[in-house]
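Priority: low. Protein: UDP-N-acetylmuramoyl-tripeptide--D-alanyl-D-alanine ligase. Input follows.
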Amino acid sequence: MEILKCKEIVKAVDGKLLSGSLEAEFSNITTDSRVVKNGDFFIPLVGEKFDGHDYILSSFEKGAAGCLTHRDMSGVDGKIVIKVEDTLAALRKLAAYYRQKFDIPFVGITGSVGKTSTKDMVYSVLSQKYNVLRTQGNFNNEIGVPLTVFNLESYHEAAVVEMGMSGLGEISRLTSIVRPDIAIITNIGLSHIEKLGSRQNILRAKMEILEGLKDNGLVILNGDDNLLSGLKGLLKHRTVFYGMEDGLDYQAYNISSQGEMGTSFEITIGYKDYKVHVPAPGIHNMHNALAAIAVGVELNIPVEDIIKGIGEFLPGKMRLNIIDLNGIKIINDAYNASPQSMEVAINVLKDVANSNNRTIAILGDMLELGDISVKAHRDIGKYAAMKEVSYIFTVGKKSKDILEGAIEAGMEKDRVLHFEDNAEAGKFLIDFVKPGDVLVVKGSRGMKMEEIVNLLTTEL
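Result:
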C-alpha cells in the first residue's frame, strides 16, 4: 500500500479527527485486530458475533497508530482516532478514494459460477505483459474488495478484482469502489436464489457491476448463457460475447477434452486461426479462457502471449484440484457448490476417468437454494445417474434428495449411500476405495467437504 496521510483519510471518509496529527502517515490498513502490526491503521467492523470496536485499545497496544470508530469515544494520546457514522461504509469510501490514485486498467468479474477461475485465467494472461494485482482467496465481498484495493502499489500496471454477492445492492457498492474498465459476467446460475427468488433477479444483481463501469468500458458476457445472450444490443457500453454458439465475438470450435490433461479448442481472431490449450480438466474452463482472451485482446496483448498465459493457468485451492494417491485419483472441488457447478464436477469426474475406473461422487448439501432445493438436489442425482457415475455417496440433510433423484432415474440402490457427517463418510471411504478409483468431493462451503479429502489423504 502507498502512503496515506491522516488528512486524506479524514476527507475520504467524511470523518472528524478526535486525536492525533493530520500529517500522520499510514502504509497499511487492517480490519483484523489479531494481525495488527506497528504503525497500522485499524478499521473496526461490526459482525453478527463480534464488534471490532471492542479491540481498538488492544490494537493500539499491539502498535496500531490510528483507527476509525463509530462509537462515541474520546481521543487517545499519541494515536489517530477518527469518528465516522459507520465504519463499514467508511471502509468502502476510503478504498474508493485510494483506487482513484491508480490510472491503470481494472477488470471486474462477477457471475454465479466460475468467477475465481476466470479471475485467475485473466491474471495469467495479463501477467504476460503487466504487473498485475488480483483478488486473493475469497476476498470478493464488501470487506475483501476494499482490502484487495489497499494492496495496490505504485508498480502495479493492471488489476483483476472478483466481486461476489448474496443479495441486491452488494455488487453496486463494490463496483463503485473498483470502477472497472472491463466488466465480465461469467453466467447467471442459481446461487443465492433463496434470497433473490429467481434467475432474473440474480441477473439484476450481477448487472449492477455495470453501474461502476467507465463510459468507454467494455462488457464481456457469456453468450452461451440464455439470460446474458438476451442482452445483445441492449446495453449502452461496448459489449462482446464469448462461447460455443455461432455468431459470437469469441467462438470456440473443434473442442477436444483430454481429461486430466485439460481441454483444447480453436478460435479465430483477426481472420487468423489459433489453437488454445487449457491445462485444467473440464469443458467449463474453455469459457473462462474465452473471457480471458477477450480481456487480452482489449488490452493489446499479442495473441501468442495470450495463449501462453492460458497455458500457464493454475486452478485455485479446492477447485477441481486432482490428487493422485496410491493409484486413486481424488478431485477436490470442495470450495463451494451450486446446481451448475455440481454438474460441472460430475462432468470432470467422467472426463478424468476411463472405462476401467470406478467413478465415485461424494456430494454434500447445496445451500441457499430456497424453494427449489428439493428439485435441484433431485436433478443432480438424476444427472449423475444419467452420466453413469458408479457410486453416489451423500453427506448432510438436503443431499438425501440427490439419492432419491438417482434412484428415480434408475440407479441401483446398492450404489447409493447417505452419511450424516464428513467423518462418517470419510471412515467408510477409507475401506471402500481401491486403486483405479476416481473420486470427486463437492458441497457448499458450509459443508466443509475438504474434511473428507483431508482424512483420505492422511489415511490412504
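The chain has 16 helices and 23 strands. The mean pLDDT is 95.
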